[in-house]
Amino acid sequence: MLKIGLEIHAQLKSSRKLFSLSKNTTSLLDVHPNTTTSFFDVSLPGTQPKLNKEPLLLALKTALALNCSISEVSTFDRKHYFYGDQPLGYQITQHYQPIARNGYLNLTKYDLPKEKTIRIEQIQIEQDTGRTLYKEKGRSYVDFNRSNIPLIEMVTKPDFSSVEEVRAFIKKFQQTLVNLGVCTGELETGAIRVDVNLSVDNNSRIEIKNLPTTSAIVAAIRYEYKRQCRLIEKGEPITEVETRGWDGKKTQKLRSKEDAIDYRYMPDPELPAIRLKVKDIVPKIRATLPPSVDEQLQEVLQKYDIKLRDANILLADNELMDYYKELYNKCVQSGVPNPINWLTHELLGSLSKSNMAFEKSVLEVDKFVELLVALQDGLMTKTNGKLLLMHLINNPQDQKVPIPQLLDEFDLTKTDETELLDQVTDKVMFENPSVVEQIMGGKPKKLNYLIGLCMRASEGKFDPKLIEDKLKEKLSILPNTTKT
């Protein structure tokens, strides 16, 4: 029997850091090292922490969204250890009296085939550490931009019994944080970090660290489960509690219980306890919460008649969701079908190819609608529509130019020139006699290959259906035979 519990750290998107007035740059990718720090962040002697209210509010929102009980009194403690990126010599956390306890997150029919409730033991507020960077052999660099960024640590009960449940929980936890606007929800950038506690057949617990992505988490769990099963089958029960790391292929022992660090937790004498009038404050905070992920998912699926996969893509980004709703309403007014595929497949796909992140400004909604209307009116083929979409993304200055003018300028208008279509199809058939022979010999699906070649040769000028009909006419193929 497999038992899994999770410890998840999430960076809070407050404007300032937890205990200083430094700007909180939760996305560190574009920030020069050691430029968003204060004296306290780098632990200069004489500096003292002062709790900012915004991270506390974000933590309380998260706790309520996860159905936790808010503590009337919570305190900060010092977790002592020494490392280069933690110059204080300790981390400020909430070991003894966390901000919230006893919550849960429901995994519904939208998350798993069988619904399940995952209990949450506690949520605590703590400060992030700096980052140690190894850029050259024999030398390491410390970046304190991340130091003192506010974190919440959420600890679950060992309620997971499969990797599918773990994957579903992490995804829903990410969606919940994004929906609340308290965290970016990104594992890849370190905004969310996950540690796994795993045991098999009630043997001792193994903790797995250094898991940067959901796929790494799943792979590490599968590997560790098989490793422990092999040991148990050999008659070697897991009796030692240990911490293991993940190198991308296998788990490796980092330390055992005997080697575990004694953190010497003690109350922080420089920070007063947080005392909340729970009966007064909880209703006020709860009133500010948006509809839950499940409520929004149900609304989107019903109102817009889209697939669950597309709904989850929208829920992962509040700005994308708002963009889609505006795009949908304007498409309806213009008589254009639901634009969900053009948004999630074509627009997001084009942005990915161009290494660009989604922002509403990458393509104004009105311009997107104008493009889709031109497509609906038959002014261009779908292939040329995709080309024009990519062009508009990479050349934003052309978004001011009317779509018909761009179609003429780039010769992207759909044509019904019979003579040119005859020339293209004849040329493709002449250059591919073996394919023609296979089609005539009873393999009509090969026709799709010729259609693709004709589309390429005509640079997307003709509708694929028009090309298909012309090829069938020339090859004397009955309609619909390519679908057999």
Automatic annotation (TrEMBL):
Gene3D superfamilies registered for this protein in UniProt: 1.10.10.410
Subunit-level organization: Subunit of the heterotrimeric GatFAB amidotransferase (AdT) complex, composed of A, B and F subunits.
Any one biological process term the GO annotation gives: glutaminyl-tRNAGln biosynthesis via transamidation
Location in the cell: Mitochondrion
SUPFAM superfamilies: GatB/YqeY motif (SSF89095), Glutamine synthetase/guanido kinase (SSF55931)
Assigned EC number: 6.3.5.-
Protein name, UniProt field: Glutamyl-tRNA(Gln) amidotransferase subunit B, mitochondrial
InterPro entries assigned to the protein according to its UniProt record, in alphabetical order: Asn/Gln-tRNA_amidoTrfase_suB/E, Asn/Gln-tRNA_Trfase_suB/E_cat, Asn/Gln_amidotransferase, Asn/Gln_tRNA_amidoTrase-B-like, GatB, GatB_Yqey_C_2, Gln-tRNA_amidoTrfase_suB_CS, Gln_synth/guanido_kin_cat_dom
Keyword ATP-binding tagged: yes
SMART domains according to UniProt: GatB_Yqey (SM00845)
Role played: Allows the formation of correctly charged Gln-tRNA(Gln) through the transamidation of misacylated Glu-tRNA(Gln) in the mitochondria. The reaction takes place in the presence of glutamine and ATP through an activated gamma-phospho-Glu-tRNA(Gln).
Entry similarity comment: Belongs to the GatB/GatE family. GatB subfamily.
Species the sequence originates in: Ogataea polymorpha
Catalytic activities: L-glutamyl-tRNA(Gln) + L-glutamine + ATP + H2O = L-glutaminyl-tRNA(Gln) + L-glutamate + ADP + phosphate + H(+)
Pfam families hit by this protein: GatB_N (PF02934), GatB_Yqey (PF02637)
GO CC terms of this entry: glutamyl-tRNA(Gln) amidotransferase complex; mitochondrion
Record PANTHER family: GLUTAMYL-TRNA GLN AMIDOTRANSFERASE SUBUNIT B MITOCHONDRIAL AND PROKARYOTIC PET112-RELATED, GLUTAMYL-TRNA(GLN) AMIDOTRANSFERASE SUBUNIT B, MITOCHONDRIAL
Domain Asn/Gln amidotransferase: 326-475
Superkingdom of this protein's organism: Eukaryota
HAMAP family named in the record: GatB
Keyword entries, A-Z: ATP-binding, Ligase, Mitochondrion, Nucleotide-binding, Protein biosynthesis
GO molecular function list: ATP binding; glutaminyl-tRNA synthase (glutamine-hydrolyzing) activity
